[in-house]
Every structure is written in structure tokens, then in C-alpha cells.
Design goal:
Blueprint: E1 5-10, E2 14-19, H1 36-44, E3 49-50, E4 59-65, H2 68-79, E5 84-92, E6 99-106, H3 109-113, E7 119-130, E8 134-141, H4 148-155, E9 181-189, E10 196-200, H5 205-213, H6 218-223
Length: 226
């Protein structure tokens, strides 16, 4: 099995890692024994507390606290919109508008099942590159609703490649073996030192391979990332 994470930042209060796909952060109702959290705890020999979540198939940056106190502070930061996150997504077809906001009330499938009410969600997006059957989009969510990016992109007719929850795989002319979503940037004020921490990581190998397969110059994509 490929190493499930790479440590990007660590001090006595926090650890930020780059997560691989196909691994849940915490046990789901399926009660998985091997989760990102359990594997990470076994490796660093410290009790850890996830400060936010990423879907099983989503790769990229995720913050863990080394105490419940720091976790609570971070969850409050997320709630107040004080943590900045950015994602790359490969999406179906071309978007009508190349830059703007997704705004509105959303509710994921689990929420519907349990009778939850829709919640307001907001995301800034911009198209970085577009091709015949797919586009590369940068996304910056201002709220943290479950499956927010997946729902908003599917709603406008541009679901993320590999989506099988809010779109049908048969509707895609270009295939990706998982959800083509990657959390590449995160920025926050350290809860103890007060310093700003900006962390940026590369695309995962499978997304790079996909671009090479479609003869897309990956370095040119990187130059557009600000």
C-alpha cells in the first residue's frame, strides 16, 4: 500500500499532512479499522484530533491538532471563515462563466436521509484551463458544508470527473479513476504563536499522469496558481 500521508508541517501543537485518496479520515458507519487518523497516530505515536475533513477520494492538505483544546480553537476558526483553503478540480466540459461565485442553499444526500435542513454555501471559482471535454478549475470555499464543491459543480452541469454520487459515470466523456479533487493550499494563523502559516503542495501523481496523458503542460498550470 502506498504511504497514506506525507507530513507537510509539524510542531508541538499541530501536524498538517498531505492525504492520499481512498482512505477515510475517521471511521464511517462502515466502521473501517484503518483510517487516516489511526494510521497517522500509529506513526507519530501521539493522540491526534482532526480539525476538518476531506472526502475519502479527495487528496490534499488536512490539519490535525495534538490536543482537544487546539482542535476546538481550529474548529472555531473554520466556523468563522479564518482558515483559507483552495482546491483543484478536473470537471466535465466547459463552464459558462470563467470566474465567479457559487452561492445558494445545499444539502447532501446524507443530510436528506436524516431530515437536515439545507444550509447556505459559498465558493469562489475560476477556470485555469479548458479543453474539449473537461476543464481545470480552482476552487476556494468560504463555507464548509458536506460535499459542498461536489454538489455545487454538479448543480451547474459541470460535475467533478470521477463523481458517482451527484452524477452518473456514464455521462462523462473523460474518465478519472477517483474524484478529481485536490486540496492544494491552506492558510491560517497559528493558534499559539500567532504566526501566519501558508502551505502549498503539488498535484498528486494520478492527476499529473492524467494531464500528461492528455498532453497538457503541467508546469504552465503551476504558473497560474497564485
Amino acid at each position: 500500500m502506498k504511504k497514506p500521508f506525507e507530513v507537510i508541517f509539524e510542531d508541538e501543537y499541530l501536524i498538517v499532512i498531505d492525504k492520499i485518496a481512498k482512505l477515510v479520515v475517521q471511521p464511517s458507519p462502515k466502521k473501517e479499522k484503518n483510517t487516516l487518523t489511526s494510521v497517522l497516530e500509529r506513526t507519530v505515536k501521539v493522540k491526534l484530533y482532526p480539525c476538518h475533513r476531506l472526502d475519502k477520494e479527495t487528496t490534499g492538505l488536512i490539519i490535525y491538532a495534538k490536543s482537544k483544546t487546539i482542535q476546538k480553537e481550529f474548529m472555531e476558526k473554520f466556523k468563522k471563515g479564518q482558515v483559507k483553503k483552495k482546491y483543484f478540480a478536473f470537471v466535465k466540459d466547459k463552464l459558462k462563466k470563467k470566474k465567479g461565485f457559487f452561492e445558494g442553499y445545499i444539502l447532501d444526500k446524507e443530510g436528506r436521509r436524516f431530515g437536515e435542513k439545507p444550509k447556505k454555501a459559498k465558493t469562489f471559482y475560476r477556470v485555469l484551463k479548458e479543453y474539449l471535454n473537461f476543464s481545470i478549475v480552482e476552487l476556494e470555499p468560504f463555507t464548509g458544508r458536506r460535499n459542498q464543491l461536489r454538489i455545487q459543480l454538479a448543480r451547474i452541469g459541470n460535475p467533478i470527473l470521477g463523481e458517482d454520487k451527484y452524477a452518473f459515470r456514464r455521462d462523462f466523456q473523460v474518465n478519472f479513476r477517483r474524484l478529481a479533487l485536490h486540496a492544494f493550499f491552506i492558510s491560517f494563523i497559528h493558534p499559539v504563536s500567532g504566526n501566519r502559516i501558508d502551505l502549498r503542495i503539488d498535484l498528486p501523481q494520478d492527476m499529473k499522469d492524467f494531464l500528461r496523458l492528455h498532453k497538457i503542460s503541467y508546469p504552465l498550470l503551476s504558473e497560474k496558481i497564485k
